[in-house]
Amino acid sequence: MNICITHNSALIVVDVQNDFCPGGALPVAEGDKIVPVLNRYIRKFVEVGCPVYLTRDWHPGDHLSFKSQGGIWPVHCVQGTEGARFHPELSIPSLAVVISKGTDPGKEAYSGFQGTDLVSQLRQRQVRRLFIGGLATDYCVKSTVLDAIREGFEGVFLSDASMGVDVKPGDSERAIQEMLREGAIKITTENIE
Question: CATH top-level class for 9-191?
């Protein structure tokens, strides 16, 4: 199925941070392989003048998701650290909007919509269709796509620009099926007109 980037579209690049890439604290195997693909999407959105948003985990050092605080994850994406920076090869446009999530030590935030003003920013710009990809398919990408749909946006999952953790084998595929069941559209760069 082919799909257009229309004037009311936006791109959301989810959590392409050093800690989620090989060598990071919580790496997605080969997570850095999606960076060139995301850069192609970013270029397309910039060319047509549509907004680009980048979400990032931006945790305080005592975030409840960390094992040291009783959570399930190793310490990752702590505010101001090298691990929290975006991957160095990600092409970040000058007008890109950065959305920081997981900033409250006592609240979990997988979705770019949780505890942020992303909805109001998108509504202000009259965005209706969201193209979403990044890391990881089975966690923050899935949560962001599902929340986008719940908020009334059209959710487009960028399957060639997303990579999963697969803590349990098949998690990513199950996440994709759940997104599709909830109404997401699955595409690759080949499907963009």
Answer: alpha beta
